[in-house]
UniProtKB/TrEMBL annotation:
Gene3D superfamilies: 1.10.287.130, 6.10.340.10, Histidine kinase-like ATPase, C-terminal domain. The chain crosses the membrane at residues 20-43, 181-199. Residues 261-477 form the Histidine kinase domain. It catalyses: ATP + protein L-histidine = ADP + protein N-phospho-L-histidine. The keyword Phosphoprotein applies. It comes from Ruminococcus flavefaciens. GO terms for biological process: cellular response to phosphate starvation. Pfam families: HATPase_c, HisKA. This is histidine kinase. It is an enzyme of class 2 (transferase). The keyword Kinase applies. Coiled coil: none annotated. InterPro entries: BphY/WalK/GraS-like, HATPase_C_sf, HATPase_dom, His_kinase_dom, HisK_dim/P_dom, HisK_dim/P_sf, Sig_transdc_His_kin-like_C.
Length: 477
């Protein structure tokens, strides 16, 4: 096991450039090994197999044309196949006498003077299948010869068909091929080594550059440049890493801002809690009116702390997928009225006016608790950012395929390039106002809940006139 681990670690330390070069070299060796095996060692066997197969198929084809009764086609096939394949073809009558003779180029044993054609006829008659396959040697040339024979005729034997094929020795051809192959092998191996070195460098260099840049990025350097020049895949990888770098840089900046803002939100109520607790201890402990006033402030700041912690926990659970939807049917108009009523105390105390434009009651099927949280956060966000007139407008718009809920403020609006960032969990508007109610994480929770429901959402904004946040409930009854 230790040896295996050693080789694995050793292999991981081998430079990519050398690995690519080695793979090219191994591929070249395998290709030439196969080439030598098939062109030198197996050439003679392959030639013989092909010659035997061709002779057998020709015999079957010629015999089939005779049995079909088409004499013209029969002799045409004899002439064509004998010339094309360098065969000798002999047709005998049922007594073993020559019926037709075809002279072709090549050494033909069945036409030699020492050949007794009736011997072949007798062997065909003696065979159970009416077919013979013989391997003979030509006494004159010494070449191996293949002799195929069969009967022709449908119901009874009308005659015999003999096909003779020469198995010419391929030793000389192999010697020529071997010499050429040796020369070609040497040239191509040298060429392959040079090409493999060039390609390995061309493939590995962009990856080496990207790896070096990625190591810098891992150390926190968000100004790293990724150079993917060389080939398309490396460029795509470099572009992807450049995009990831920009996103990581934005996330890092936004996370720092979030920590700063949350720290401020935590520090303020904690400071007030401590101050008023000390006041109760030192000053108002015996004064019921003052003590109750100070205790109310402590309770209020405690609630604010709890709200901040709960929002952070909710956002964390939503984004991690630990919270599941519990859909049920309810009337969206009634739910909007109920939520707006909760802001009545804030409206009376601070002068905010929330105008609701309802549509007909519509039954929807979704998670009521989470959708209520979305509506509450959107209204709270509008209160935080509305103009000096302190007007907020909520609208219910019924559509054939769903219900659109809009929440509009009359504030300064959002820059066009900031709209796409407004729902990001680490984003904080540069024109951020102190919250009247809430923690500043509301829109992040809105985004997470609506994505869980797979609902469309967005924002329309005009600088100097305000913004309208909207979402569409597509699950209706």
């Amino acid at each position: 096991m230790k040896q295996i681990k050693f080789f694995k670690h050793a292999g991981s330390r081998i430079p990519l450039k050398f690995k690519v070069w080695l793979y090219f070299v191994l591929f070249t060796i395998v290709v030439f090994t196969l080439l030598w095996l098939f062109q030198i060692l197996f050439l003679e066997d392959f030639y013989e197999r092909m010659r035997i197969s061709t002779a057998s198929k020709c015999m079957e084809s010629i015999a089939e044309s005779y049995n079909s009764g088409n004499e013209e086609e029969f002799y045409r096939k004899i002439n064509t196949m004998s010339v094309d394949n360098d065969f000798c073809v002999e047709v005998l009558d049922k007594y073993g006498n020559q019926a037709k003779k075809n002279h072709v180029i090549g050494d033909c044993i069945i036409h030699e003077r020492f050949t007794n054609l009736r011997e072949f006829k007798d062997k065909i008659d003696e065979s159970n299948s009416g077919i013979i396959k013989l391997r003979l040697k030509n006494p004159r040339s010494g070449y191996d010869m293949l002799l195929y024979g069969c009967t022709i005729g449908i119901k009874e034997c009308d005659g015999y068909l003999l096909i003779n094929a020469v198995l010419e020795p391929v030793g000389a051809a192999i010697s020529i091929i071997k010499g050429q192959l040796m020369l070609i092998t040497v040239i191509l191996i040298v060429f392959a080594f040079v090409i493999s070195l060039y390609l390995s460098k061309r493939i590995a260099d962009p990856i080496d550059r990207i790896t070096t840049s990625a190591e810098q990025l891992a150390k926190g350097d968000f100004n790293t440049k990724f150079d993917g020049r060389g080939y398309l895949e490396a460029k795509k990888l470099a572009d992807t890493l450049t995009y990831a770098e920009k996103e990581l840089s934005k996330v890092d900046t936004m996370q720092r801002d979030l920590i700063a803002n949350v720290s401020h939100d935590l520090r303020t109520p904690l400071t007030m809690l401590k101050a008023y607790a000390e006041m109760i201890r030192d000053l108002s402990g015996d004064n019921p009116v003052k003590r109750n006033e100070h205790l109310e402030i402590i309770i209020s700041e405690t609630d604010r702390l709890a709200l901040l912690v709960n929002d952070m926990l909710d956002l964390s659970k939503l984004e991690s997928g630990k919270q599941k939807l519990s859909p049920s049917e309810f009337g969206i108009r009634g739910k909007l009225n109920e939520i707006i009523d909760r802001f009545e105390g804030l409206s009376e105390k601070n002068g905010y006016q929330i105008h609701f434009t309802p549509d007909e009651e519509k039954t929807v099927c979704c998670d009521p608790v989470k959708i209520e949280q979305v509506i509450y956060n959107l209204i709270n966000n509008a209160i935080n950012y509305t103009g000096k007139d302190k007007q907020v407008f909520v609208r219910q718009i019924n559509q054939p395929d769903g219900v659109v809920v809009e929440v509009e403020d009359t504030g300064d609006g959002i820059e066009e390039d900031k709209i796409k960032l407004i729902f990001d969990k680490y984003y904080r508007s540069e024109n951020h106002k102190r919250e009247v109610v809430g923690t500043g994480l509301g829109l992040s929770i809105v985004k997470a809940v609506l994505k869980m429901h797979n609902y469309d959402y967005g924002v329309r904004s005009t600088l100097g006139k305000g913004s309208t946040f909207w979402f569409k409930i597509s699950d209706i009854k």
